[in-house]
Amino acid sequence: MTGEVSVRVCPGGPLLVRGAEVVVDDAGERHPVTRPVVAVCACGMSGRKPWCDSTHKAVPAQAR
Amino acid sequence: MQLPRERGPISRHVIGSLVRTQDEAGPIAIGAAEVLDDGDAQLALWILYELHYRGFDEVAEDREWDLGLLRLRKTLERRFEHELRRAVGSVPVASGTGDVSAQLLELIAADDSPPVAAFLHRTASREHIVDFLRERSVQQLKESDPQSFVLPRIGGAAKAALAELQYDEYGGGRPERLHSTLFADALRAAGLDDSYGAYTDDVSALSLANANAMSLFGLQRRLRGAAMGHLAAFEATSSVPARKIAAGIERVGLPDAVAAYFHEHVEADAVHEQVALHDICGRLVEEDPTLGADVLFGAATCLHLAALSGAELLERWSGELEVAS
Ligand code: FES
Ligand SMILES: [Fe+2]
Ligand SMILES: [Fe+2]
Questions:
Q1: How confident is the model at residue A63 (pLDDT cuts 50, 70, 90)?
Q2: CA pair distance B164, B92, nearest whole angstrom
Q3: How many angstroms away from the CA of A53 is the closest CA of chain B?
Q4: pLDDT value, residue B90
């Protein structure tokens, strides 16, 4: 691991994060990263926050 | 693994040649009927492919490269691929130079597969869910293995992204988290046999065809684009259904280990979808634009076979519901 964290915005979907070891949510809770790449919910609707659970697909494009 | 039971002349020929002799397999004529939903042809192909995966207890390992068997495999594959191309050939895809991930998304959005996940979520009995797991076992116990054959055949960014995705499928360094192991855990928890190939005799021709399509694409360098398109469509149509299926499993009261496989896929495939669409297929086609058409063919094949399987299962289960009510 290079120590570099990369984030890619997936339009209408999550943030694709590589190189992070932990994701801290709004409440300050720390979620360890256990995958080589993770999808962090950006729509705010996931039932498994901070991770994307594809709920964003149920939201019409204009409302995102 | 034991050899499965024959389902007709072609699989009988393959099994007979594997058990009876060490000599090269002889030729056999293949009838004119479609192989796509023919249990005999699909089983023969499944056995021929398994020689490249785990093999069979009673079969010498060098039969993997038996020229007679390879010739038969080639004949069956040519027919299978031709039928698939004909079946999905009419899929409307935005033409022109648009990027392949946008075209893939369009293809996936237009998919109107039968609502298997919704049925499993709301209506299915425990037996239906067990039936679903059994049918899926022929592909899920070797989950991600067909795609691993593609790794040495591509390069650069697409290769790095495929390796990244596969590492996650293979448990990220933790054998107990291998997705194929999670599926085996689910089978056991549902009261099924989790040994590799345990249900080859029981599953439908279409369940074999779904598994075989991945091997068809994975084992031929020529079809690497189709393999990656298939992967992208598979990943992009997994997370939402997995959430519904997990809820259905919990509704009928099957043990947590059954739902755990699907919970993992809600989260993992939300990631894999993005990686497969953009980082694998997008970069692969950027590197070699001639692969674009096959990426779309592979994706369309995945959706087409899933739709056929879905229709088959829903029809089977609705028949049972009528009998029961
Ligand atoms: S971005 Fe996918 S659920 Fe929020
Ligand atoms: Fe998986
Ligand atoms: Fe996946």
A1: low
A2: 31
A3: 5
A4: 57
Report whether residue A42 contacts ligand 1, using a CB cutoff of 6 Å: yes
Taking an 8 Å cut-off on Cβ atoms, the answer to whether A36 and B266 are in contact is no
Q: How far is B123 from chain A (nearest CA, A)?
A: 21
Query: Does B84 share its domain with B226?
Result: no
**Residue A12's closest chain B neighbor by CA?**
B274
Look at chain B and count its residues. Answer: 325
Q: How many CA atoms lie within 13 A of A26 on its CB side?
A: 6
Q: What are the φ/ψ torsions at residue B261 (nearest 5 degrees)?
A: -55, -45
Q: Residue B26's pLDDT band (boundaries 50, 70, 90)?
A: confident
List pLDDT tens digits, range A5-61: 999 999 999 999 999 999 999 899 999 999 999 999 999 999 999 999 999 999 766
In a domain, B137, yes or no: yes
- For chains A and B, CB pairs below 8 A equal 49
* DSSP states of B238-296: THHHHHHHHHHHHHTT--HHHHHHHHHHHHHHHHHHHIIIIIIIIHHHHH-GGGHHHHH
Q: Please list every residue in chain B whose beta carbon sits closer than 8 Å to the beta carbon of residue A37.
A: 164, 168, 271, 275
CB contact under 8 A, B274 and A39: yes
Q: Is the pLDDT of residue B218 over 70?
A: yes
Which B-chain residues 15-44 have CB contacts (< 8 A) with chain A? Answer: none
Dihedral pair phi/psi, residue B101, rounded to 5°: -70, -35
- Overall pTM > 0.90: yes
The two three-digit tokens of residue B216, written as one number: 């068809």
- Residue with more model confidence, B6 or B90: B6
Q: Which two tokens stand for residue B38?
A: 């023919």
Question: Does B153 lie in the same domain as B301?
Answer: yes
B72/B104 same-domain check: no
Question: What integer is the mean pLDDT of B240-244?
Answer: 97
Domain that holds residue B282: 100-324
Q: How far is CA B22 from CA A14, B17, B59, in A?
A: 55, 8, 9
Whether A45 lines ligand 1, by a CB cut-off of 6 Å, is yes
CA B262 vs CA B44, B96, B239, B258, B259: distances in Å: 30, 37, 8, 8, 5
